[in-house]
Specification:
Keywords: ATP-binding, Magnesium, Membrane, Metal-binding, Nucleotide-binding, Phosphoprotein, Translocase, Transmembrane, Transmembrane helix. By secondary structure, this protein is an alpha+beta fold. It contains 34 helices and 46 strands. An eleven-stranded mixed beta sheet has the order 19-43-42-41-20-34-40-39-35-36-44. A nine-stranded antiparallel beta sheet has the order 22-21-33-32-31-30-29-28-25, sandwiched between helices. The radius of gyration is 36 Å and the shape is elongated.
Amino acid sequence: MGRKCGSMPVKIDEFEVKGYRVHRGRYTLACLALVITFGLLWVLLVWRKDIKMWMFYKECSLEHATKILVKDSFGIFYEEDVYEERYGSILQPKTRCFVNKKVKYVWNIQTLQFIRLKFYDENAECQSFHEHAGGLGQQEVNERQQKYGSNFIQIAVLPVYRLILKEISNPFYLFQFYTIVVFMAQYYFDYSCVVIATTTIAVGTSVYETKKQMSVLKKKVQVASGSVTVVRGGHLVPGDILCINPLDDKVPFHCDAVLIEGTCSVDESMLTGESYPITKIPVPKDDVLFDFEVHKRHILLNGTQLLQGRPQGNNTFLKAVIIRTGFMTSKGKLIRAILFPKPINFRFYVDLVKVAGLFLIAGLGGMIYSMYTWTINGGTIKQIILHSLDILTYIIPPTLPAALTATTAFAQRRLLTKKIFCLNAKHISLCGGVDIACFDKTGTLTETDIDLAGAIPIQKAEFQKPVLQLSKLPDIHPLLQVTTTCHTLIKVNDQLNGYSIDRKMFDATTWNFANGPPGVNSDYGVETPFLVSSPLSNRKQVEYGILKRFPFESSIKRMTVIAQRKGNEHYNVYMKGAPEIIAKLCDPVTVPSNYYEVLKHYTAQGYRVIALAAKTMNPQITWTRIQKMTRNEVEANLELTGLLVMRNQLKKETIPAIRILKEAHIRTVMVTGDNLETAVTVAKDCQMIDKAQRVIQVEVTIIPASNHGVQHLQVLYNDSLIKFTNGKMRKTQDIHNGDYCFSMDGTSFELLRIHDPELLDKCIHRCKVFARMAPEYKQHLIEALQKMGHQVAMVGDGCNDCGALRTADAGISLSMADASVAAPFTSQETNISCVVPLISEGRTTLDSAFGTFLFAIAICFIGYVGTLMLYSISTIPSDFQYLILTWSITIIPFFIMGNTDPHIYLHPRRPLRHLLAFLPLFSFFTFLIWQTTIMLIAWFYCRAQPWFEPFVFEAGKSPPNACYEETAIFHLICIGSIVAAVVFSPSEPYNRNFSNKIFMAWLFQAIVVTLCTMFITNEGFVNWCNFKPPPHPEYTVVILALGVFGGLFCFCWEKYLIRGWMYHWAWPRINRVRRPRHLYQKIEKELKSKPDWPKINDKDFNDLEQKSSQVGNFSPNVPITCGSLPNEDQIVSLNSGDYPNLDSQNEVTLFKTFHGSQRGDYTGNGTELDTDNHENIPLTESTANVEDTPSIRHLDPTTDEESEYDLIPPTLSLPAEFFIEQSSPVQSFIHQSNSSC
């Protein structure tokens, strides 16, 4: 494709490119067009790069292009220059390349296309990093610095003049410039100066804020490349060997590097949001292809800090190979996301431009009428031209962009008082349309820390008596040995740091932890990075040396350590991780027969279960041999030693926030990396899922091709038919009453996304729990919901959520780390109580924006109609009349209308979001009709007076002679402007009435000024304003009464008819019968028409070979990975798909403890293990009390049925204030300062 001239765009990564080269003829004609249009055409070319390229250049093949037109996935065009660089010696040919969004693309002579510059570590084997320990030569350094660039994250801060030019290229500012020129030509010098001053302030403020933000970002991210040491010395380039002194305090990393010697613990909180130290180990010396995401445990990331390091052997330094520098690093990727964010697709601003265009077209009619009237009345050529151009200045308010900016600024200030920081003010309005709120679980809905409920030892393949306190176990107990050694804890400044699970587990043992001595420990004969010892007591102290750690990996869901007891000759292997994974690695004879039933019992109650295993290695195996063993060899044939049962408490703010959102008809969804059953239970505990609502698990698998059929997608809908009623169980009613929701894991989600997007849309439309979701899956979910027509809020703690937070319409980070800059909003309060006020502020801002816009165009068209009436007799308002109207009446509401506090209730209906919708247009045009009618009545009433004197026109005179008609019309324009501000000011149900004190003060002032202009008859004042007062004050009173009556009528019309009856009663009923506009509305209509879907516990088969043309090529063995999830959630996995085939008919498990309360903090029944209730472990058999006659179906490997446990659901344990009935149909969410919530 690269060789064809004028061919279709070539796709590179996620965007399209076209090649162009200079065409002299087009270039000459384009320059001539710029001269003819006095440079105004350049404004269009600034906004439309594709038109600019077409005018100045000729399309050609990429091979010969000197300019590249890039169109990204958002439809935004970029113009890039093609240049040449030489990589290597002088004999090497130069390489053509261009840079887009800080990423370099180079020309590939084989494919004749531009490709992204490959990373240094791309397609490299792990062992290759160990092959060049001596560093690079100077020639290699120069070549790589030319190829990859300097190790700088350079952020260019544009000079002030360019920022000003960019700002004033906005069409509204250009229109304002047009207004100033026209007014100056008509000698409206005073009013023109006012417009110039306001425009200068608005542009200056915007430029100052932009430059300030860019300067702060530049200062924060730009670092010197010479601040670290490399083997050869000098600047950093990929392939260099980085030497790190572990004795230095908090050594920062300014590049991405692969660790090859030594181990260390790093602080990644400022980059990923992960609050615990991360252990890094050397990359193995094998021929496995290096993968950046898979091998992150070996990578020192740019933007992180060294907490603790341990060099290899007697070395002084840790060593790492630099693989990425500058914008190619992880931090560089984050900065690129800030510099080039996803464009805000806000319909309001799109409609704003469309409305402006339509009104300009309407203004052409006014121009024609103006030319006609001034011509027939004998106006001069200058008057005819200027007044015809002047009529367009009434159509669009030039200060509207600044007014809308002020509205969001007020909201931003109010959010700051609620400890919510906004990085992009435009997203505030998007929050007003949110109809789905997605939440991460751990650290968001629940506490970050986790509590240890107890442990259940396993001996001889049988569950033993539960242990409430690990410290009571003997020192030789295998379960105690695992909990004291198998963790990733480190000690920094005498402070124990690590994952919450590891800390809770180790603290429960009451053992001591210490860093090992440098070099070889004489007590063990090998290096001992970490030591753990039993507490000092009467018994002999026991010490273990932790010799080697295999860190937790999300892909294998386990971690392992090799340890040795002091004085022993043999070594021990200890492992912990996901129960189903550990069971498969252990000797089958050590796994209890009812193992999976017990696991399901706990996970179904929201508990997090960790399996523990251990083994003793043969004493003849030496440490040298162990070091050469692979991880799989070390972890083979372990013995299952027990289960740890953990509980994760809900935050106290979670339930009230979820209840308010549900009452406001905002759908709540959980998106977590945790286990599916645990997530469903937590969703029920926090009332995200109603207790009576059926939860159907969607399981998707690929059935490979065989002799019985082609490869196909199998979709299974599993539902548990058992629920509690008064302590007993009964079979629930038919699922197809519509009261159900879906749950699914990340693997099923990704399979549907790739192979059956249509079915995926149906599933996520009803799905409330997404579990085992990798970071990229979360982002895909947000995009899928947006594609369906939803406006989505995403709340996460910043770790693993950056992509989803950045993609969502309202991304809220609960972390203050650098990673939070990916989200538009950051809450200092680390709980979801921030969601409700943020959505409320969004609705207030959106409603205020509508009010500001309607007020702006209302006063413009009132002036437009009034001026056209005056043009019929060839007169115009004076300069001082414009000053009074602008400064005393119209300009202040522009900037203060948004200073309204949000309402105390979150209304179930979202505010209007489209300017071109029926209700806003109907409201505006009817208001204009009533005001025009009032002015026409006053016009003819004035002319009907016996003392009326017709206007005498004098060509060329400025200001014109005063007349009665112009005086009356001006007074009614003032009254109409006040009425417009009152009618369109934000009010209930999204704003608090009378909360805008500045607006109330302005209203009083505007009424006083209007009355003064109407009733002051002082000759100097009258001449200054160019008024002609009537001889009888009764006439003025009639004009005032006429204006007041029209205002009252317009207020009642807007308040009670449009915002009352039409908006709250008629319009919802019209929406029910009209055709659905959004995809989610169409899906809902389709599901209601198919009451037999889904088919419970039945299988849907989709032939993938028939769908391959739609979804593209795929491998029969589709790789589904969970990505990198450095989160403690991942180790407690229990996937129902991993259950064995269990025959549970007439066999149920009696378990009286570990009952979680509905609140989720587990402070109700069963906070601790009751040893008296575990005398019968291993679990005994019993018969459940089942009400319905149909027998309970067997559990099979693909079902998600609950076991029939004889459990009584605990009572709801919520504070009493949460259950106070409200007189309003929605829940109050204020009283944050007074409530204990």
